[in-house]
Design goal:
The protein is α/β, with parallel strands linked by helices and 199 residues long. It has one domain: Rossmann fold (3-Layer(aba) Sandwich). 53% of the residues lie in helices and 14% in strands. The chain contains 8 helices and 5 strands; from the N terminus they run βαβααβααβααβα. A 5-stranded parallel sheet has the order 2-3-1-4-5, with helices on both faces. The longest helix is centred in the middle third of the chain and has 25 residues. The N and C termini lie close together (11 Å). Bound molecules: thymidine-5'-diphosphate. Thymidine-5'-diphosphate binds next to helix 2 and helix 4.
């Protein structure tokens, strides 16, 4: 398997199990590579602001402000965590990345072109995986402390946008409506196939 670094992001609806899957993937890959798990919103100043002051608040910000905050956090995340790890030849597994902005802020009504534009300085991921779970299933799994994004209508719209990127070939879809270990196996297979291919 190639030992070159790579930037892989794991995407999906709230409650689809992507955090568990991204962490499992980093652990499994860690047996043969140096792999790091990271997430957005990030642990940086902007990501912390997003989580603490807004995500679990009463209502959503304007969609433009949301998109700009997530885009700013992304640049900080890339500069402080992703690039330094890639430069050391590590595999970086990010729990959410730019497709989250396209799907969530797109579902809030913004044009995908504009969202792409404000994210144009964010590093392109080498591989993006979408863990697809039925929106009704995720709604039944979510904790009482729901974020401002977590309602069925939003989750359905978000999924539709993710699926558009699957159709275009930029996201690799994995059926997440299966037992956790089977999903983990599929994620690992997709990622190792990518890492083994000539790059
Ligand atoms: P989530 O991965 O659920 O974080 P946590 O595990 O801390 O709950 O992400 C939080 C929310 O932020 C989620 O509802 C999706 C939303 N989000 C966006 O709307 N746009 C983005 O660009 C990102 C990264 C997240």
């Amino acid at each position: 398997m190639s030992k070159k670094g790579a930037f892989i992001c794991i995407e999906g609806l709230d409650g689809c199990g992507k955090t568990t899957q991204a962490k499992l993937l980093a652990k499994k890959l860690g047996k043969s590579h140096s792999a790091v798990y990271t997430a957005e919103p990030s642990r940086g100043k902007i990501g912390t602001y997003i989580r603490k002051s807004y995500l679990y608040g009463e209502k959503r910000l304007s969609s433009v402000l949301e998109a700009l905050l997530f885009a700013a956090d992304r640049i900080e995340h890339v500069e402080t965590e992703v690039l330094p790890a890639l430069n050391e030849g590590r595999l970086v597994i990010s729990d959410r990345y730019v497709y989250s902005s396209l799907a969530y802020q797109g579902a809030a009504g913004l044009s995908l072109e504009w969202i792409k534009k404000v994210n144009e300085h964010a590093l392109q991921p080498d591989l993006a995986v979408f863990i697809d779970v039925n929106p009704n299933t995720v709604m039944s799994r979510l904790k009482p402390k729901k974020s401002v994004m977590e309602n069925l209508e939003t989750q359905q719209k978000v999924r539709e946008i993710y699926l558009e990127f699957v159709e275009k070939g930029s996201l690799t879809r994995i059926n997440g409506d299966k037992p956790q270990n089977e999903v983990a196996k599929e994620v690992y297979e997709v990622v190792t196939k990518f890492l083994n291919a000539p790059r």
